[in-house]
Amino acid sequence: MSAVFPGRYTAQIDESFVVFLIGMRINNLLAVRKWLPVANAMGPMISELMQHPEKGLMSSQFFVSWRTILSVQYWRSFEQLEAFARNPNDPHLPAWQRFNKAVGGSGIVGIYHETYLVKAGQYEAIYGNMPLFGLAMGTQHQPITTGKRQTARRRLGGENEPAVPFPQA
Considering only CA atoms, which of 6, 17, 15 is closest in space to residue 118? Predict the structure, then answer.
């Protein structure tokens, strides 16, 4: 189990970055031969990216909700994400080609992705009594005590007063 950081923390990154959601949905539970290869394809991709941080992945986490598998990923740039997706020497493009050949438009397995380009300073994050999670896994994990990091609006560069007192450990 990951170590819990008591108190409040935020993620700190001074550059623009990309939030990438990618996943699949099993539309036909009985078609295991069609959806299992799709489900198994993501692991090797993430392993490749973790072994080569220069490719741009900062962090990734998986979530499962009944028929749906989701990977939330944080990338340094869209250019690096796109380069990985299109490079025939990386695992994504061959997996994409296999999916199109085996599943195509049959409706047996759904796939999706969403890409969000986040400009520097246009994000905020808070983690209370949590292990490293989300954006903080791939950036600087900073404690929040008082001042400019204390509220969501302040973390986004604005000004306001806390709605509730700052919790003490």
Answer: 17
The Cα 38–Cα 105 span in angstroms is: 14
* Together in a domain, 64 and 135: no
Residue 32 belongs to domain with CATH number? 3.30.70.100
**Residues 122, 128, 134, 136, CA torsion sign:** positive
> What range does the domain containing 140 cover?
5-13+119-155
Number of domains observed in the structure of the chain: 2
For residue range 143-158, list pLDDT tens digits in order: 998 788 889 999 999 9
In angstroms, the CA 50 to CA 28 distance is 31
Contacting residues for 6 by C-beta, under 8 A, at least 6 apart = 129, 169
Indicate the pTM of the whole model: 0.93
